[in-house]
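Journal club side-thread
Mid-discussion, someone asked how the predicted structure for our own chain would compare to the paper's figures. Pasting it here so we can look after the session.
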Amino acid sequence: MASPDLVSSLPSSTGETFYGSFNIAIEETKPANFIPALEVSTSSACSNININIPNPPPLPCKTCTKNSYPKRLANSSHVPAETRDTWDKLFKDGYGADVHIITEDGPIIQAHSCVLGVASPVLGNFLLQSKVKKGIRCIKIPGVPCEAAYAFIRFLYSSCYEEEEMNKFVLHLLVLSHSYSVPSLKRLCIDHLEQGWMIPENVIDVLQLSRKCDAPRLSLVCIRMIVKNFKTISSTQGWKVMKRVDPALEQELLEAVVEADSRKEERLKKMEEKKVYLQLHEAMEALLHICRDGCRTIGPRDKVLKGSLVPCGFPACKGLETLVRHFSTCKSRVPGGCVHCKRMWQLLELHSRMCHEPDSCKVPLCRHFKEKIQRQSKKDETKWKLLVSKVIAVNNALGPFPFPFPARSSALL
């Protein structure tokens, strides 16, 4: 990340200058884990601040609550159970019926033309075109079982249905509600399918049916389910039949799976990049904290060290403290030498590029790097500017809230 020319051009006394800026307390360190992970330290308890907070205003009276208005509106359009039972009884008894509905595998279903015409404009047109024989009009509903047709006509009367019938004939009722333009029943069928009725074995059939019945939301739910459980669904009989009958749909689903995987990888990549930029920003804060205020066992010469028992509120402080301790005593601070020293050079240069007060800055070599920046190539300058903008952007995106990442590792240190 740092330019080799820049690092190699530093004077040989740089390490002495850097070391002379700090008061370092000697403590035992674990050799097996030289550069420890960035750990989120537990911040010290905030001091209690007495603030005069006024009492909240009284709650509004019950008659003015928002929930009371929807209740009154719902009660004004409520259909009593007796009314539904009356229409249900009218259908079941068939009193005064003037329509016979013929199905493929069952008895004739009696109905009333006035009810059917009002409930379904499609059935109303069929009735107008049908011939009257002995005061009775006959219409056919082919392609569905008699029980499904019976449940459909019953719903036109009273909007009632049995849960068992809905579970058994929901696909037939979806087709009937779409074919005969009954939107209320169609919504019920779609909601029933979305709320747990679909399983890997039938989701392909539901998807194909949703396309034919103009149910885009149901189609989207099916596609999401297929993408999420592609391995299981691609081995079902429904997938094999669809692959043979509708290869275009198979290609569309495969493209959806590939696109979903690509989006997932892209999201993970961006999350990892944000984690890196966030770690860099925390390292900059910890570096400024150590050089300006001092921390537990390291700090400026004019500051009293806090000791290792005092918790630190900077997540990157522990790892950076160990890195600074190594950098001040390492004998091979040259490009291509110690990898830990190279990272320290990079952090110092990044701070210098983000610092706006190099003359009064407490971080060692800040002004030195400011002068060296003028001699860098345009290519290196572009890379550094992009890095600085990313680090600043991720910090601005956080605002006052913590970043939604797990405990951060010290990949940078």
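Post-session note: DSSP finds 18 helices and six strands in the chain.
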